[in-house]
Amino acid sequence: MAFLPVIIVFLLYFSGIPIAYALFASSLFYFGVLNTGSPTDLILQKFITSTQSFPLLAIPFFVMAGSIMNYAGISTKLMSFADVLTGHLPGGLAQVNVLLSMLMGGVSGSANADAAMQCKMLVPEMEKRGYSKGFSAAITAASSAVTPVIPPGINLIVYALIAGVSVGKIFMAGYMPGIFMAICLMITVNIISKKRHYAPSREKRASAREIGHQAIDSIWALLFPFGIILGLRIGLFTPSEAGAVAVLYCIVIGAFVYKNLRPAHIPLVLRETIEGTSTVVLIIVAANVFGYYMSWERIPQMLTELLLGITQNKYVMLMIINVLLLVLGMFLEGGAALIILAPLLVPVVKGLGVDLVHFGLVCIVNIMIGGLTPPFGSMMFTCCSITGCELTTFVKECIPFIIALLVALLIVTYVPILTMFIPNLLY
C-alpha cells in the first residue's frame, strides 16, 4: 500500500494527465485516504511553502531572457558566428546547427525552445540545399539536447534545488559536458555528410580576419554567458540575481544595440515567460508534496538499501542508474523524470561517495537523450510537428546521433574530471 501512490502517478501520467496534476493527485490520495493521521491543510500548506524559495526566481528570469533574445535577433547573430566557424566543414549547415545549439545554451537554456527556433530557422534552408528532411529534423533535435546542459539550463537549477548543491557550481560543471556532447555530434555529422555528399555551406574556411569581424558583430551575444560566469565567480550576484541581470542586459542590447526589440514584443515575451515558468514551477511544487509522502514512507531509504544490496561499487551503481534513467527516459518527459527520480537516487550515490554535482550532470545528459526517443521524447515531437517529418523516418535518422550522445554520456559518467574541472578550478 505504501507504493500505491507511485503506481497511481504512472497510471495517471500514461493516461494523458499532466505530470504535475498526477503527482498532486496521488499525494492527496495518500494523505486523504491511506494516511488520515495528517491534517489535509498541512498538504496544502506544503504546496504553498514549496514556492517560497529564492533560487526559484532564477527560472522566470532566465526563461524571460531567452525569450527576449529570440525577438532581439541575438540568435541570428549567433548563427552567423557559428557559420564562419564551421560552415566550411562537410555538412556545413548541420555543423552550424550543432554549434548554434551550444551557443544557445548560454542564452535560452531550453531544449524545446532551441529545437523550435532551429526548426523554423535552419531546417527549411537545409532542405533547400539537399539535406533530407529526416536528417535535418534529427540533427536539430539531437543538437538541442546540448542546450540545457550548458548554463543557464533550467534543469541545472531544478537539480540544484533537489540535491541541495550550489547552483553556481553546477552551472560551472555544465560547460565541459555540453561542449563534449557537441563535439561528438559534430564528428557524427562529418561522417554521415561525407557518405551522403552533403556540401559545406561555405566554399572555403573563413579567414582569421573574417572570423574576427563576425565575432565583433556578434560580441554582445557572445559576452552574455561570460558575464554570467564572471559575475557568479566574483560574487557580484547570486544565480537568481544573475537572471534579473540577464533580462536587463537582453532588453538593453535588443532595444538599443541591435534595435530589433519593439514594444509590440512585450506581450509575447510576457506570455512565453508565464507559460514556461508556470509549467516548471507547478511541477516542482507538486513534486515537493509528492516527496513529502515518499519521506513519510521512507521510500528513498528503502530504494537506497535495495540498490546498495545489489552492489556497493560506485562504478557499477552508476551504470545501473544510467540504464534505469535511459529506460524511464523513454516514457517520462525529461523534467518530470529528473524531479521524480533525483530525490530517490541522490541518497544512493551520496552514500557511495559520488560527487553530487557530477551526478547531476550525469542525470541531465541522460534525460536529454530520452528527449530524442519514442514514445514520449519532447524534442522528437517538437521537431516532427514543426518540420512535418514522419516519426519512423526521424527515429531511423536519429540513431547515429543517439549513439554519439551515449558515448558522451559514458565519458561524462566515468571521467568525472571532465565535469568537475571548471568547478574545482573556480571554487
What does it look like?
By secondary structure, the chain is an all-alpha fold. The chain has one domain. Helices cover 77% and strands 0% of the residues. It has 23 helices and no strands. The protein has helices spanning 4-14, 19-34, 40-49, 58-72, 74-86, 92-104, 111-121, 123-128, 133-144, 154-163, 167-173, 175-196, 208-217, 219-233, 239-257, 265-296, 299-310, 314-329, 334-351, 356-370, 378-387, 391-414, 416-426. α1 (4-14) runs antiparallel to α2 (19-34). The longest helix has 32 residues, at 265-296. The mean pLDDT is 82. Keywords: Cell inner membrane, Cell membrane, Membrane, Transmembrane, Transmembrane helix. The chain crosses the membrane at residues 6-33, 54-74, 94-113, 134-162, 174-193, 214-236, 242-261, 315-345, 352-372, 401-422. It is a multi-pass membrane protein.
Quick description:
With 427 residues, the protein is an all-alpha fold. The protein is built from 23 helices and no strands. It has one domain.
Keywords:
single chain, mainly alpha, globular, 77% helix, 427 residues
Computed over alpha carbons, the radius of gyration is 22 Å
- Along the chain, the helix and strand elements come as HHHHHHHHHHHHHHHHHHHHHHH
Number of strands: 0
Poorly predicted sequence stretches spanning 5 or more consecutive residues: none
How are the secondary structure elements laid out?
Elements: H1 4-14, H2 19-34, H3 40-49, H4 58-72, H5 74-86, H6 92-104, H7 111-121, H8 123-128, H9 133-144, H10 154-163, H11 167-173, H12 175-196, H13 208-217, H14 219-233, H15 239-257, H16 265-296, H17 299-310, H18 314-329, H19 334-351, H20 356-370, H21 378-387, H22 391-414, H23 416-426
Helix pairs in contact: 1-2, 2-16, 3-16, 4-15, 4-16, 5-6, 5-13, 6-9, 6-12, 7-9, 7-21, 9-21, 9-22, 10-19, 10-20, 11-23, 12-22, 14-15, 16-19, 17-19, 18-19, 18-20, 19-20, 20-22
